[in-house]
Design the sequence.
């Protein structure tokens, strides 16, 4: 027992403790909050709409024959901006006067889906998912069909709406 | 050293280091059998090697998508000793994982988890966990195909987790895609956060073991000092073994630069192969639970061993699941590797990836552009041009081993633009490998063979009067495709003769230097610069440019005509595929 605490039972000591606790908490928070915001920043930002990207002339597609085309647009990765680079690719297939498009990204875990070794349809080399000519799942672990992308034709050019989807879910959930 | 005595005294008076060293040397050594001590020392040695080589590697590493692969390739291939430091780091990391697993297995067999060893046991498990986390984060740092694709798939697996999955995946990848921030995050974890955790865990583990040793009666066998010599010897042996492995393998593997648009056959790191194999048994909604639950149960069982084992003598029942976990993991990994080895599609894709890795490594030695290694790869005809030709041209054309002669519908490009090709084509343009199977069939007459539909007796004059003239035209045209005519100067006269024949006779339909086509067919191609790099580039971008083929090339009537690629491929890609085509059409020869 010090001389001081005898004179002031509780009072000043408790107040000092409280001030120290509050001051400490404020001090820690003013460090922790910006640090946490910085670290959590990339997790922010949900799904936005897709981007319409110009691809190839309809005339370059053969009826019923899938063709892999590059989706070329500006690509932003954190601080870098690349002008007119391949963002991804899509399988395009002409069916009379419409064009169907599927993302080449496997809905399972995101590997690149190629043509089946023989016959129509598509195949993913990572976990052996296979899809028929309409993108429907035939075998393998993929939880959903190939992701169809909206298309429209403008002045003879096929426009594709590029969009990423969350992998491994039974429904198409847009991301990014 | 007697001369240093005063200096030692000076420090001892101020720090008491002599007493501290004496206390440490005389402290009872960590208990456990010789195996436990040997594994512990080997783990410590590996961690030491990893720390040392890791800091050295940091002095030559650039953690950005543009710089990562290039800096690792530079360290590996150019910088003195780089392959050795990197190899030692890589193999020490693999050894650490094996040793950490052995430590767990050994601990289970000698019941190291029993009181008072529970916390030490959990820390042993934590060492294995951190070592695997280091393997995953470290595998990404070279930003090569292997590491990048493994991380993309692993990130998507994390994304399967309920509620927090998507959030966690974005946190790891640094955004919706694995990019610059994801790499910087893996780097921060790998070089600072996880090493601190690992050293902390190892230190705590040792402190607990020393505490047990000090309090046990009779005291543990020997002191720290009496074990020092054997420990150092073992450490030296570990270093030598890792050195030998590094020498034998010439360091750590480095795949081609990460390319998000490639068809890479992604596979996980070897220590995750059991999970990869497990995945094949669970589909759809079961996938996350199946592939997380099984490893989760295994880890949970190991963590709860102290409570499962009740010392009632049924050790076999307790240990059987432990053997099952490790044996099962090894068996699953072997099954997956065997499956891959027998999968011809995978073997082919892997072989292609290996060829690309080697080619990229060779290119990088001459320097990587500031845009990064991927830019380097994308500007290289052999690496990317061939790929583009395969994807965009080989469905109609044949060149070298690309394209199928049975299915081709356009000109065979083997030997295209060479003297032999031109001479043969001028004589018989409608041979299938020239224009016979394409839209230009019947458009070009033979320069010296009488047309079959000419009635006999009707007057007909060949465009070239002799084989020598035809040869002169071929030599002249072949020279158009070269930046500088490569043939001897004696050919100059021949070329001049060829040029005269072209100007006099061919420009009835063809253009030469923009002039000609007196008949206005708007079909036959420009012959100046024919089959040169610039000519091919223009033709690929737009076959109806009139600088190569002509305005009518894209007409509906021209069935299966060549498409324009200027909307489909970037200008840089067209450049690269044209360069590859130019080079390889000249390096191949016309099929008989």
Sequence:
């Amino acid at each position: 027992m010090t001389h001081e605490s005898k004179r002031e039972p509780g009072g000043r000591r408790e107040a000092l403790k409280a001030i120290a606790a509050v001051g400490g908490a404020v001090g820690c928070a003013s460090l922790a909050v910006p640090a946490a915001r910085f670290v959590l920043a990339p997790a922010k930002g949900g799904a936005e709409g897709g981007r319409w990207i110009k691809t190839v002339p309809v005339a370059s597609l053969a009826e019923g024959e899938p063709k892999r085309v590059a989706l070329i647009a500006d690509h932003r990765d954190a601080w870098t901006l690349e002008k007119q680079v391949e963002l991804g690719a899509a399988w395009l297939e002409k069916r009379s006067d419409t064009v169907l498009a599927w993302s080449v990204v496997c809905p399972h875990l995101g590997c690149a889906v190629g043509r089946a070794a023989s016959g129509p349809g598509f195949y993913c080399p990572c976990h052996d998912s296979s899809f028929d000519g309409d993108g429907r799942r035939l075998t393998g672990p993929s939880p959903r069909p190939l992701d169809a992308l909206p298309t429209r034709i403008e002045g003879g050019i096929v426009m594709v709406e590029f969009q990423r989807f969350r992998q491994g879910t039974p429904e198409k959930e847009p991301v990014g | 050293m007697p001369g240093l005595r005063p200096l030692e005294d000076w420090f001892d008076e101020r720090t008491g280091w002599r007493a501290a060293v004496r206390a440490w040397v005389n402290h009872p050594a960590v208990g456990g059998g010789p195996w436990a001590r040997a594994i512990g020392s080997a783990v410590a040695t590996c961690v030491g090697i990893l720390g040392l080589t890791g800091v050295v590697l940091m002095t030559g590493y650039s953690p950005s998508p543009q710089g990562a692969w290039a800096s690792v390739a530079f360290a590996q291939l150019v910088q003195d000793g780089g392959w050795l430091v990197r190899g030692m780091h890589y193999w020490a990391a693999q050894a650490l994982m094996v040793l950490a697993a052995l430590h767990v297995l050994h601990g289970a067999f000698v019941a190291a988890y029993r009181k008072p060893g529970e916390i030490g046991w959990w820390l042993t498990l934590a060492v294995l966990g951190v070592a695997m986390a280091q393997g995953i984060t470290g595998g990404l740092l070279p930003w090569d195909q292997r590491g990048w694709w493994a991380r993309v798939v692993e990130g998507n697996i994390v994304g399967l987790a309920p509620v927090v999955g998507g959030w966690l995946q974005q946190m790891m990848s640094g955004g919706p895609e694995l990019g610059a921030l994801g790499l910087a995050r893996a780097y921060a974890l790998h070089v600072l956060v996880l090493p601190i955790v690992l050293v902390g865990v190892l230190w705590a583990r040792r402190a607990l073991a020393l505490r047990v040793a000090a309090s046990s009666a009779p005291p543990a066998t020997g002191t720290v000092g009496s074990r020092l010599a054997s420990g150092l010897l073992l450490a030296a042996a570990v270093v030598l073994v890792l050195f030998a492995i590094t020498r034998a393998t010439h360091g750590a593997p480095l795949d081609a630069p990460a390319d998000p648009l490639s068809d890479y056959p992604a596979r996980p790191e070897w220590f995750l192969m059991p999970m990869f194999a497990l995945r094949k048994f669970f589909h759809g909604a079961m996938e996350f639970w199946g592939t997380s639950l099984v490893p989760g149960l295994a880890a949970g069982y190991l963590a709860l061993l102290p409570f499962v084992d009740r010392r009632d003598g049924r050790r076999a029942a307790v240990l059987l699941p432990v053997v099952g976990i490790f044996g099962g993991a090894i068996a699953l990994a072997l099954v997956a590797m065997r499956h891959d080895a027998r999968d011809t599609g995978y073997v082919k894709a892997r072989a292609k990836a290996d060829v690309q890795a080697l080619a990229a490594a060779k290119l990088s030695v001459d320097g990587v552009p500031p845009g990064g290694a991927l830019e380097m790869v994308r500007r290289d005809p052999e690496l990317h041009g061939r790929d583009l030709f395969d994807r965009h041209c080989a469905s109609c054309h044949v060149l070298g081993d690309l394209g199928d002669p049975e299915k081709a519908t356009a000109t065979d490009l083997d030997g295209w633009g060479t003297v032999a090709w031109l001479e043969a084509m001028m004589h018989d343009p409608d041979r299938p490998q020239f224009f016979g199977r394409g839209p230009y069939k019947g458009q070009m007459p033979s320069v010296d063979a009488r047309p079959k539909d000419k009635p006999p007796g009707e007057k007909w004059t060949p465009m070239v009067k002799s084989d020598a003239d035809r040869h002169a035209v071929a030599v002249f045209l072949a020279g158009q495709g070269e930046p500088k005519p490569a043939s001897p100067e004696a050919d100059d006269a021949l070329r001049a003769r060829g040029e005269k024949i072209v100007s006099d006779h061919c420009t009835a339909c063809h253009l030469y230097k923009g002039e000609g086509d007196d008949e206005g067919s708007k079909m036959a191609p420009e012959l100046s610069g024919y089959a040169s790099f610039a000519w091919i580039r223009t033709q690929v971008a737009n076959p109806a440019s009139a600088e190569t083929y002509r305005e009518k090339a894209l007409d509906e009537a021209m069935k299966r005509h060549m498409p324009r690629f200027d909307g489909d491929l970037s200008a840089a890609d067209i450049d690269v595929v044209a360069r590859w085509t130019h080079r390889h059409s000249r390096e191949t020869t016309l099929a008989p």
